[in-house]
């Protein structure tokens, strides 16, 4: 094997991920942060607000993506995801007012993760 061919067949420095895997990783990380922050809400309400903000930013990004005309997802799924964004934004406002907890947001994210894994519909 020549030097060039050994370089060409060497293991890549970073594994190649699909867009779906990257989405899963981001949603899973934010969901874990939300779970941990919700558990510490009485001791660290600011930490919960930061996790809720990151979750809102995630859902805002997802909503912008599904609203794009070129998005390849089925229209019904796009509409459900956009509805979840609106619900998430409204519920996050209630959390900031200390009038709700983050459990439903965690459940939504977990359902989306389940759908991304192929374990069921992401509704």
From TrEMBL:
Superkingdom of source: Bacteria
Protein name: Flagellar biosynthesis regulatory protein FlaF
Entry keywords, A to Z: Cell projection, Cilium, Flagellum
Short name of one Pfam family: FlaF
Gene Ontology biological-process entries: bacterial-type flagellum organization
